[in-house]
Automatic annotation (TrEMBL):
InterPro entries: SWT21/TCAB1_mRNA_Telomere (IPR051150), WD40/YVTN_repeat-like_dom_sf (IPR015943), WD40_repeat_CS (IPR019775), WD40_repeat_dom_sf (IPR036322), WD40_rpt (IPR001680). Keywords: Repeat, WD repeat. Belongs to the TCAB1 family. Pfam families: WD40 (PF00400). Residues 10-25 have a biased composition (Polar residues). GO terms for molecular function: RNA binding. Residues 1-25 are annotated as: Disordered. GO terms for cellular component: Cajal body. This is WD repeat-containing protein 79. One of its GO terms (biological process) is Cajal body organization. WD repeats lie at residues 255-290, 314-335. It comes from Diatraea saccharalis.
Length: 448
């Protein structure tokens, strides 16, 4: 990783122009952000800037598939952290020429190499950056992961070394892996969700010292805003808590509305609304936490998998961005579609999305809006099952030793276009496992 933060570079390189530099320590509100944060999706087109992809080794088994499972920009915007199934964690840096200015349409697409690659021994359940991360202060450059059969681990973002672990033990003194985790907003505590409890660790005290709060259902994901904590669960509910400085949880209420287990949530920058998504649930719910009894708005996206599909809200609070299993990027612009408030009952129940961008040929499972620049990171990939017809064909070939013995019309049906891989990406042999950076702002026209 580069030692100089994007914020410091922006102050040195951008302040001389009319474009204002943004301070990460300044609180984000809608009025202030309207002139500090650049306008997004102004050209209604996306320009590909960089990409990085992964492919399976020829000697690997069919169940070893290196598909992307999430990507998140660092809080200072200098790098992007990605989780790749069966290939651990990858840190890719933003090219220096994108720290300022606008790219031209004929800009060469960069093929990114991982600045840090850290192998994992098991399935990564969840991960998050330290909220005060700044590349100019090396001790703040770290992230957390919770891994199958492992404690919570803190990793150094410069060399990928393990800094420390936070271990949660149950009543019979068995170490449990956390299902989800997040930092408190100020970064002094780690909040980890387990099957029956929420445990709070002090960042300065690694080990097995923690406070514990019992819950009735597994905590699958978190969203924090000031002293508010939203806890999503696999039983389709969302619980709201007020957390004081001592780490004590006071229940505010429970929210119902999803048809599947809640997998991802995020507060809007004003802290009043909460957006949530669930697995195998096409509904995308917007809540007003002041009146949490029912959803404020219901949006739609294509979700046909149990996989966690990340979405993001721009720092200015104007744009809601999400992917889906159909590979399409959806964008809601609050100035054109009032996604923050309830829909007009007189309107049709159709899709009210502002923009649609068919970016990937595979599942678009994660999106992350850059904290400073008009750049969007998207990740693609999912687990691809073997086509049952092809599996039956292969099994018959192995049993009979020849294709002639199974020529009962199955192959004719496949050749005639009835192969379900054309309709379901999960059975497709064309896997796209990549993370891509897109320019979503104004594009500088090249007159040469």
């Amino acid at each position: 990783m580069e030692s100089e933060s994007l914020e410091e570079y922006s102050v040195n390189q951008i302040s001389s122009s009319n474009e204002p530099a943004r301070d990460l320590n300044t609180s984000l509100d809608t009025d202030e952000c309207s002139y500090q944060y650049p306008d997004l999706f102004t050209g209604k087109t996306l320009l590909e800037l960089c990409n990085s992809s992964w492919s399976r080794s020829q000697k690997a088994q069919d169940d070893i598939q290196p598909y992307l499972r999430g990507c998140k920009w660092s809080p200072d915007g200098t790098c992007c952290l990605s989780v790749v199934n069966n290939d651990g964690m990858h840190v890719t840096e933003l090219p220096r020429d994108l720290y300022s200015g606008c790219p031209t349409p004929n800009r060469t697409i960069d093929i990114l190499e991982s600045a840090v690659h850290m192998k994992e021994a098991g399935l990564v359940y969840d991960f998050c950056w330290y909220p005060g991360m700044n590349s100019g202060i090396p001790e703040t450059c770290c992230w957390l992961t919770t891994i199958q059969n492992s404690p919570i681990q803190m990793w150094d973002a410069f060399d990928g070394s393990l800094r420390c672990t936070y271990r949660g033990f149950n009543a019979v003194d068995e170490m449990e892996p956390a299902l989800s985790l997040t930092f408190s907003q100020e970064g002094s505590r780690i909040i980890a969700g387990y099957k029956k409890v929420i445990r709070t660790f002090d960042v300065d005290r690694p080990g097995r010292d923690f406070a514990e709060h019992k819950v009735t259902s597994p905590a699958s994901c978190f969203a924090t805003n000031s002293n508010l904590l939203a806890v999503g669960s696999w039983n389709t509910t969302i619980n709201l808590y007020n957390v004081n400085e001592m780490g004590t949880y006071k229940s505010i209420g429970k929210m119902h509305g999803h048809a599947g287990g809640v997998t991802h949530m995020k507060f809007t920058p004003d802290g009043i609304r909460l957006v949530s998504g669930a697995r195998k649930d096409h509904r995308f719910l917007v809540w007003d936490i002041r009146y949490y009894r029912r959803p404020l708005n219901v949006l739609t996206r294509a979700i046909n998998t149990n996989q966690r599909i990340y979405f993001d809200i721009s720092p200015c609070g104007k744009y809601l961005v999400t992917g889906g299993t159909d590979g399409v990027l959806k964008v809601w612009d609050v100035d054109r579609v009032d996604w923050k408030n309830s829909l007009d009952p007189s309107e049709d129940d159709g899709d009210n999305v502002t923009y649609k961008f068919p970016l990937h040929n595979d599942c678009c499972n994660s999106v992350s809006v850059h904290p400073l620049r008009p750049i969007l990171a998207t990740g693609s990939g999912q687990y691809h099952f073997k086509d049952p017809l092809v599996a039956l064909e292969d099994e018959s070939i192995q049993l009979n030793g020849t294709l002639d013995n199974i020529n009962n019309g199955t192959l004719d049906n496949i050749n005639n276009g009835t192969d379900i891989s054309d309709n379901d990406l999960r059975y497709s042999r064309e896997a796209e496992n990549s993370v891509v950076f897109w320019w979503i702002g104004d594009i500088l026209q090249d007159n040469t």
